Amino acid sequence: MMSSISRSIPSSAPPRPPPPHYQTFLTPVLHRRFAKACSVGFIACYVEAFVISNKSSFFWAIFPLGWTGLQAIILFLLSVLPVLILRISQLHVGARSHATVFHAMKAYIGSFSTYSTFLTHSFASLVFVLLYLWSGSKEDRLSFIIEGKSYERPRLNERYLYLIFFACYTGFIQAALHLYEDRGRLQLPHLYVWPTEDEPTSVPDAKSLQLSPKAAFKKKMIDVPSGAFYMALVSACTAPFAYIPFRGIIWHYTLVTAKTFFWLNRSSTLPSFPVGAGMFIRSLWLSFLIGTMWQITNLAFDIYFTQMPLTADGKTVSEKSPDPNGTLVTGLKASQAPLTQVFSYTASLMNVC
Questions:
Q1: Are the CB atoms for 242 and 130 separated by under 8 Å?
Q2: Quick one: which of 109, 128, 136, 212 has the fewest CB in 10 Å?
C-alpha cells in the first residue's frame, strides 16, 4: 500500500532544461570579429582612396566628407566587403582533399564557388580602377574619349580600354591565387605559440598561447608589400600578352557602341599599341594597390577569426551559459558547423589548462 502511494507522488524536482547551444554564445563574438575586420578593411580603403585621389586641393583630398571619403565608402562596399562575404561563404577549417588532380579540377570547374570567386574579384578590381580613372586629370589622358584638335573629331581612347581589361585581368589573377592558396580555409593554429618539447610546462595559461591581434598584425604586415608586389608584377607583365587576342574584339564593339552616343572619328583602324613604359608602370602601381588592399583585408579576417573563443571580458564563450559544460558539449557535437566544433574544442583545452 505504501509503495503504491509513493509511486503515485510526482517528483518534486522539475526536469532539467537542455543547455543553451554553444553557437548562441559564439555568434555575437564572430559578429564583433567580422566588424573589426571590416574596420581594418575600411581604413585600408580610405588610405588608398587618398592615394588615388586628385591632389589639386590637398584639403579636400584628405577631408573625410569630401570625394576621398566617398571613394573610401565605395571601395569598401564594392571592393572589400564582397571579398569578406566571399570568405564567409567559403569558410572551412580542414584542408580540401582530392584523390587526383583530375578530380580536383573537376570539383573546381563544376563548383559555383569557383565562378563566384572570379566574378567577385574581377568586379571589385574593376570598381577600383574606375575610381582611379575618374580621379585622374586631363594630363593623364585616361578618359574614355580623347578630344582632338579644333578640326578633328574626338577619338576613342584605347588606353582607357586597356585599363578596364587590366582591371578584370588582375581580378582574374587574384581569384586564381585565392583558389590555389585555398583562402577560404581558416588555419586556426597558425598564430598559436604552443609550448616546445624541451619546455612542455613553460606556458601555464592557455590564454597566453596566442599572439594578440596587434602583435599578429605587426608580425604579418611585413609580408604584405612583397606579396602584393609579386602579384602586381605577374599581372602587369602578362596582361599585355593576354590583351592581344581580345584587342580587336574589344576595340570593334566598343567603337560601334560609342559611335551611338559620341560624334567620333570615322576611322575604325586600331591605333598604336597602348602599353608602353608609362602604361606598364601605371598598371603595376594599380595592381599593387589592389593587391595590398585585399591582402590587408584577408590578413585582418584571418587574425580576428583565429583568435581563441574568448569574450570581451576574457572569459570563454561557454562561461556565460548557466550550464557551461553542457553548452560546451553542444558545440563539440555540432558536426554541421566545423568552426563551432573547433572553437568548442579549443575552449575545452583552455578549461583543462
A1: no
A2: 109
Exposure string for 293-303, b = 16+ CB within 10 A, e = fewer: bbbbbbbbbbb
Residue of 231, 208, 209 whose CA lies nearest to 298: 231
CA distance 331 to 334: 5
> Which grid coordinates are listed for 189?
593554429
What is the per-residue pLDDT across 45-81, written as a single tens digit (0 to 9) for each?
999 998 888 766 666 667 777 788 899 999 999 999 9
Q: What pTM value is reported for the model?
A: 0.83
Angle (deg, nearest 10), helices 158-180 and 277-305? 30
Amino acid at site 73: I
Buried b or exposed e, range 105-141, using 16+ CB within 10 angstroms: eeebeeeeebebbbebbbebbbbbbebbbebbeeeee
Q: How far is CA 296 from CA 109, 125, 254, 301, in A?
A: 28, 15, 35, 9
- 155: enclosing H helix or E strand: strand 155-156
Q: Are 118 and 171 in contact (CB under 8 A)?
A: yes
Average pLDDT taken over every residue of the chain: 80
d(CA 5, CA 7): 5
Q: For residue range 1-43, list pLDDT tens digits in order.
A: 445 545 555 555 566 777 777 777 788 888 999 999 999 999 9
Residue of 342, 246, 236 whose CA lies nearest to 285: 236
Give me the DSSP letters along 158-176.
HHHHHHHHHHHHHHHHHHH
Domain spans, the chain: 33-188+211-307, 315-352
Report DSSP letters for 9-56, one per residue: SPPSSPPPPPPPPHHHHHHHHHHHHHHHHHHHHHHHHHHHHHHHS-TT
